[in-house]
Amino acid sequence: MAVGVILNRMFRTKENPLFEYIFQQQEDINECYFILPIEDLSNASTLKKQFYFGSLQRFHDELTELKLSPFVMKYDDVITFCQQHQITEVVIAGDIMSYHHETYDILHQRQVYNKAHIKVTLIRGHHYFQPSRTKNKQQNYYQVFTSFYKQWRPFLRTQTLYHYDLKELQPIVVSASGDYNSIYSNEGTTQQHEQDKWQQFLKYNINSYTRGRDYLPQLQTSQLSIALAYGLLDINEIFNDLLQMYDHSEENYEAFIRELMFREFYYILMTAYPESSYQAFKEKYRQIEWSDNQLHFDKWQQGQTGFPIIDAAMAELKQTGFMHNRMRMVVSQFLTKDLFIDWTLGEDAFRKYLIDYDAASNIHGWQWSASTGTDAVPYFRMFSPIRQSERFDKHAYYIKQYLPQLEAIDAKYLHDTHKYYQNICKQGVTIGVDYPEQIVDHNVQRQYVLETFKKLT
Ligand SMILES: Cc1cc2nc3c(=O)[nH]c(=O)nc-3n(C[C@H](O)[C@H](O)[C@H](O)COP(=O)(O)OP(=O)(O)OC[C@H]3O[C@@H](n4cnc5c(N)ncnc54)[C@H](O)[C@@H]3O)c2cc1C
Fold it and tell me: Which positions are annotated as binding FAD (predicted)?
């Protein structure tokens, strides 16, 4: 029997359940092909492309060094490749949420393989929980995070990890003869590098996680989202570390575990309700008539809203391919509430730029902000960008880091450029010329949003 192992976004040689599966089944396998399908990232930002292709290249090279060189090809060519090599079964991580296009996800891919009469073996490679096993007593999926967390948090256990030796697979693995050379081969990262970063985080920042996670001027969170989106680290291994070291600082470890449980929760919701990727989870809000003000959307996306905290966050996104969690909440609320623009447009913009893009966390993060999702923020709780700026970037360090044109202005004026128009002008920046005027009045918009939601509630 010939088997194909689909390795996209499972960029790890160690702790990889797909390899373990092949290792266990090797007696029945005559030929095994490691396949690395490439995603179409033509509409992604350059930073995201660099990261994806660079990491893919490094993973390819690691396997090649082990004399297990994978076959790199476009997704569209995988079926033909399987047919040419009489592959009758493919092994795939069926729980990946971070594809750039949804056509690569298991819902779509399964149909493609089924049509070609190729058996699909699904293995969990990105998440801890199996969705169908997380239902409540009424056999429904949890729709409120706190109930899900309360029920399933005690089930997190340290686990024995995978047993396999990749070298022992050499006799059955057919190695690709051609080379693969991406133009981004110096970019991206490796499992080892991400593992080292994670260990550093465990040594230092996790011990002040509850305090540090909202600190904007300097990122104090783990950036594990990036490693997880590309399958560079194994979630079971992460939970093992957290549970084993839990006593070091219970409060901080628990807070961190809680965030990872959010990731599980959103993954389960996306699996159970895939339609939530394009429509409001709450039915009553499906008829919202969002604003079609293209100019507002463009200004949000370009970081030209006149609210420095929002514009700095959008600059962070473009310059780094990342955005701080606090700011993801603030800019998404600004788009969906202050500008009253459809969350799906914001979700799509984030997909283009976020290196750690994950459909489940992104979609449900956006629906949370737009008040249309499960367990969403109630519509009447609407962030004020001015207040958020005062609270989380009091000294405007974050603002000035990403908007250097405001460097010379006193921090206290930068939270509300409309109110302090003249003071800012005196310090050398003319609002409307050197930096944009605020595109909306938060208080006016707030009234409009409250009234509109109230009518539908
Ligand atoms: C509008 C919006 C869009 C988002 N889009 C994404 C996305 O595309 N990809 C993504 O991974 N996360 C997304 N998040 C969740 C969160 O912002 C990121 O996971 C987090 O900022 C990543 O940084 P970190 O790894 O340093 O986080 P840490 O604070 O170190 O958290 C550790 C891990 O917990 C998980 N986590 C933390 N917060 C959340 C959360 N709110 N929801 C789900 N999981 C969480 C992540 O896996 C994260 O890596 C989004 C949140 C919002 C509000």
Answer: 209, 221-225, 256, 259-266, 356-358
Separation of alpha carbons 443 and 378, rounded Å: 17
Q: State residue 356 phi and psi, 5-degree precision.
A: -90, 20
> What is the distance between the alpha carbons of residues 38 and 187, in angstroms, rounded to a whole number?
16
Q: CA–CA separation, 27 vs 50, rounded Å?
A: 39
Q: What is the pLDDT of residues 385-399, one digit of tens each?
A: 999 999 999 999 999
**CATH for the stretch 128-161+192-272:** 1.25.40.80
DSSP string of 233-286, one letter each residue: S-HHHHHHHHHHTGGG-HHHHHHHHHHHHHHHHHHHHHHH-GGGGTS-SSGGGT
- Is residue 222 annotated as involved in ligand binding? yes
Strand order in the sheet with 87-93: 71-74, 31-38, 2-6, 87-93, 119-123
CATH topology of domain 283-456: DNA Cyclobutane Dipyrimidine Photolyase, subunit A; domain 3 (1.10.579)
173 Cα distance to chain centroid: 32
- Ligand 1 pocket, Cβ-based, cut-off 6 angstroms: 213, 221-225, 228, 259-260, 262-263, 266, 325, 328-329, 332, 350, 354, 356-358, 361-362, 365-366, 369
pLDDT in tens, 106-161: 999 999 999 999 999 999 999 999 999 999 999 999 999 999 999 999 999 999 98
Q: Are 13 and 166 in contact (CB under 8 A)?
A: yes
Beta bridge partners of 38: 74
Whether residue 347 contacts residue 271, with contact meaning beta carbons closer than 8 Å, is answered with no
The one-character DSSP state at 365 is H
pTM (predicted TM-score): 0.97
Domain map (residue ranges) of the chain: 2-126, 128-161+192-272, 283-456
Residue 74: phi and psi, rounded to 5, are: -75, 155
Q: Does the structure show a pLDDT above 90 at 375?
A: no
Ligand 1 center–CA 261 separation, angstroms: 11
- In terms of CATH, what superfamily is 2-126? HUPs (3.40.50.620)
Instruction: Please list, in sequence order, all residues whose beta carbon lies within 8 angstroms of the beta carbon of residue 141, skipping any fewer than 6 positions away.
Output: 131, 134, 135, 268, 269, 272, 273
What's the CA-to-centroid distance between 53 and ligand 1, angstroms? 22
| Separation of CA 24 and ligand 1 centre (Å) | 34
